[in-house]
Design goal:
By secondary structure, the chain is an alpha/beta fold. It contains eleven helices and 14 strands. The protein is 33% helix and 29% strand. The chain is elongated and about 80 Å long.
């Protein structure tokens, strides 16, 4: 059974009259890589700061490995590694100098510091640049240094706030591979705006909007239970767009080349059944029928971008 690493219970954070985080609750287990999504101002960074102990919640409880973060902050923070959106780097230090400094801040015993630094450098692929000034490194290597300081003390929980911002495609791929490796031994929370990043490396996803947690599920369950999506269809004798639009559960029809169409639907199974019956009765000669399940992008747009409202009672939507 996986170890329960984070328990967040009814967390609130108030800034004057603004409720930045509202009644947030969730768990994180060892081996989880949790993708934390939301638009700007949704409350993601505030949540990351509260979970890492940088910012105290206005109300609620956070347990890190069973330790109350408010009652026993020093003990709880020993189990946390945190990389903020702007890595806390000293660019006039070499990689080795900076990691040695970070190790002392983490109260790692002097005799254990060399081994801790070496392990962090190996995991983050920094050995080849260990003597170089951080200011002379590429943005990708600087992000790796930031992650290295977060894992120096081998924490149970690693919190990464926008770790791939400003990186080129190759650097992004390398950082994603590193996060996937870290997720095998730790619990990882990844805050990001990049939906493909979550689908590439995370096994769980949560979406925040206006301080509320509006979606929480595993990616596998989301894919298995989703009924919404899109059908790609091709006919030899195509019907009119109006006829296709009248099929059960169809929301929108897009015409493509060569008698091909996209059907956006609320229920793939119902639309498929209706389509096959109509195609047979009307001699449309159906040649292709390819379903595409609802993606994380569909869910995000639906909940956040205003194409459909979040649950009226503000309860978390689960797939």
């Amino acid at each position: 059974m996986s170890k329960l690493l984070i328990q967040a219970k009814n967390i609130y954070r108030q800034y004057g009259d603004t409720l930045a985080v509202n009644k947030l609750s969730f768990d994180l287990q060892q081996g989880d890589i949790l993708g934390f999504l939301g638009p700007n101002g949704a409350g993601k960074s505030t949540t990351m700061q509260m979970l890492s102990g940088v910012l105290a919640p206005s109300a609620g409880q956070i347990l890190i490995n069973g330790i109350d973060l408010l009652d026993q902050p020093k003990q709880a923070k020993q189990h946390i590694g945190y990389l903020p959106e702007k890595p806390p780097l000293y660019t006039d230090l070499t990689v080795d100098e900076y990691l040695a400094y970070a190790a002392r801040l983490r109260n790692i015993k002097s005799r254990a510091i060399p081994q801790a630094i070496e392990q962090a450098k190996q995991r983050c692929n920094l050995t080849s640049v260990s003597k170089r000034l951080i200011g002379n490194l590429s943005k990708g290597f600087q992000q790796r240094v930031g992650i290295a300081q977060a894992i120096l003390h081998n924490p149970d929980v690693i919190i990464l706030d926008e770790p791939t911002v400003g990186l080129d495609p190759i650097q992004i791929r390398e950082i994603r591979q590193l996060i996937a490796e870290l997720g095998k031994q730790h619990g990882v929370i990844l805050s990001t705006h990049i939906l493909p990043e979550v689908q590439a490396i995370c096994n769980k996803v949560q979406i925040m909007d206006h301080g509320l947690l509006v979606f929480s599920d595993t990616l596998s369950a989301m894919n298995e239970t989703s009924t919404q999506g899109r059908l790609l269809v091709t006919f030899k004798q195509p019907p009119s767009i109006e006829q296709l639009g009248q099929l059960s559960a169809v929301q929108d029809v897009s015409s493509l080349e060569n008698n091909r169409y996209y059907l956006d639907t609320d229920n793939i199974e119902r639309t498929t059944d209706a389509l096959t019956i109509a195609a047979t009765e009307n001699h449309w000669q159906l040649r292709e029928l390819m379903p595409e399940q609802q993606t994380l992008e569909h869910i995000f747009v639906k909940l956040v971008a205003g194409q459909a409202s979040a649950p009226d009672n503000h309860e978390v939507q689960q797939g």
